[in-house]
Structure formats: structure tokens, C-alpha cells
Design brief:
With 288 residues, this protein is mostly beta strands. It is built from no helices and 21 strands.
Length: 288
């Protein structure tokens, strides 16, 4: 199914929200959380989330592909719902890191797992990768893994939406091979935010930034800043889109396309406050 509507990625039968990209040649793949609009109440989407998949060459016209992941097998850490993550290429294959919640705990505890693919379409689950280390983190909030290769250290780093004592922080884990992970102390001081959702690490204007969103504050697009990639990041945060109406743009992601850096976000509410649930147009990346 090809969507011709140039305004956004909108699914007639499903809401779309948090998303992440993988580039394969000229194709830009987007993976996104989705849940049936037939649920009626958008708040029910969280425990009914699956991971959808679409591809585009211009970030405006999207071809919807088969779903990437649904709930895991009964008893698995993700047998209730699959949540936000990231994708990168490792050793000739693609690996998706994602969050999951289980029925056994009524979704109260979040964990991180992975799946692998040779073509970005068919995915095979791997074992649970990582739980929150209680020395540094609350076990209830441990999700949205953003994974990058650190060539200088020869390892992978995972940036995680986490909390400590109920305050939002950036969690961290590292791995030599992308499979075996070790949790470490947080990269940021506690912030004023309840949670730092859907983090992404970018370098801009001579500093490192961790983009995140917070449904309870401002536009939902914010960032932390530090001179080094692994921080430490102070607890002071800044708004990325200060002119945006609160709760309109959410969970922004920066993507390189056509020789420029663009910002995409999903649309949370319309001008009347009704839930939208679709991926918006690319925007020029604001100056930090």
C-alpha cells in the first residue's frame, strides 16, 4: 500500500506515534509505534502497541510495509506490547533494539530486547538484553534505547530513557559486540522532567546534544547539552522548538537527507486538542 498524501504518514486504521529511522542506500525506513484507532481512547494505545514499518525516498510519500514486531510469546518480557527503540547495521545484518512490557507485571516494568534482520523486513527476536540496574535506576522506567557505535572506544553505547527517584535522567549501557550489555551510571544529573522520552544523540553547533521529549512540559521537544558525547550532561534542559504549541510536535528525530539535517516529529494534538497520531512533515533543524 502506497500512501500518496504528502502531509504526513497517516494510517486510516491505526494511530502512529514514536518512530526511528534506518537508511539503506536511497531508501529511508521508518519504524513506528502503532495501535488501532478502534480502541477509541488514545491512552489505551500504550498497552496495545506494535511496531509498524514504512519506507520513503523523500520523507513525504511513504510505502507501508509489513509490520516489524508484535507482542512476544506468552511469558516473554514483551508479551504485552513492544515499544520504542532504534536500528543500526552490525556485521552485515540489521539489529533493532526496542522496549517491551509484560502481562505478568501488567506493564509496570520496562525492559530492553533486540531483534535481527537481513533485509529490514523480516525480524527474528533475540533474548532479553538489559534490565535496569537498581544501583542507579528505577526498574519501572527503562526504555527507548538509542544505540550508536563509538569508534574511539571500540564499543557500542546505549542511551536510555530512565528515572532515578522518580526524576528523568539519561541512562547508559555499553557493549563490545552489540549483544552483551553492561549497565553503567547515568550520563546526566536528575532533571526537572518526569521522564526523558525517546532520546537521540546529535552533534550540533560545537556541542553534543541529547534530544528528548516530555509530554508534561512545553512543546515536548527538548535537549540536554554537553561538550563531550558521554557527558556528563547537567540537569538543566532547553527547548528545541520554543515557538511550537504545547503537545503538538512530539518525539522529534533528526535525520540526514538530501545533504541537510531535518527534524521530524509525530503530531500529538490538533488545534482543538483532539489526538492526531500521525507522522508530520520534515522541518528544517532549528539552531540549538
Amino acid at each position: 500500500m502506497t500512501q500518496s498524501r504528502p502531509v504526513a504518514l497517516r494510517l486510516d486504521g491505526h494511530w502512529v506515534w514514536d518512530f526511528w529511522f534506518a537508511r539503506d542506500g536511497d531508501d529511508v525506513h521508518v519504524f513506528y509505534l502503532q495501535a488501532p484507532r478502534s480502541l477509541g481512547d488514545p491512552e489505551l494505545r500504550h498497552v496495545n502497541a506494535t511496531i509498524g514499518h514504512a519506507v520513503s525516498r523523500d520523507l513525504r510519500r511513504w510505502e507501508v510495509l509489513p509490520d516489524a514486531l508484535g507482542p512476544g510469546a506468552p511469558g516473554a518480557f514483551d508479551d504485552l506490547a513492544t515499544w520504542t527503540g532504534s536500528v543500526l547495521r552490525q556485521d552485515g545484518a540489521w539489529r533493532m533494539y526496542y522496549s517491551g512490557i509484560s502481562r505478568a507485571e501488567d506493564g509496570a516494568v520496562q525492559r530492553i530486547g533486540s531483534a535481527v534482520s537481513s533485509d529490514l523486513v523480516a525480524w527474528r527476536r533475540e533474548d532479553l538484553l538489559l534490565e535496569a540496574d537498581p544501583r542507579w535506576y528505577d526498574r519501572e522506567h527503562w526504555r527507548d534505547p538509542w544505540v550508536e557505535w563509538d569508534a574511539e572506544r571500540g564499543r557500542y553505547d546505549m542511551f536510555i530513557s530512565a528515572t532515578r527517584g522518580g526524576r528523568g535522567i539519561v541512562g547508559h549501557a555499553h557493549s563490545p559486540d552489540g549483544v552483551t550489555w553492561t549497565a553503567g551510571p547515568p550520563l546526566s544529573a536528575p532533571t526537572r522532567h518526569v521522564q526523558l522520552e525517546v532520546p537521540q544523540v546529535v552533534q550540533a553547533d560545537g556541542a553534543w546534544r541529547i534530544l528528548f521529549c516530555d509530554v508534561f512540559a512545553g512543546s515536548g521537544l527538548h535537549y540536554l547539552s554537553a561538550p563531550r558525547r558521554l557527558g556528563p550532561y547537567p540537569g538543566e534542559t532547553r527547548d528545541l522548538l520554543p515557538g511550537s504549541r504545547p503537545r503538538k510536535h512530539y518525539a522529534g528525530k533528526v535525520v540526514e537527507h538530501g545533504g541537510e539535517r531535518l527534524l521530524l516529529a509525530w503530531l500529538m494534538e490538533d488545534d482543538d486538542g483532539a489526538f492526531v497520531g500521525e507522522l508530520g512533515d520534515p522541518m528544517p533543524l532549528p539552531r540549538f
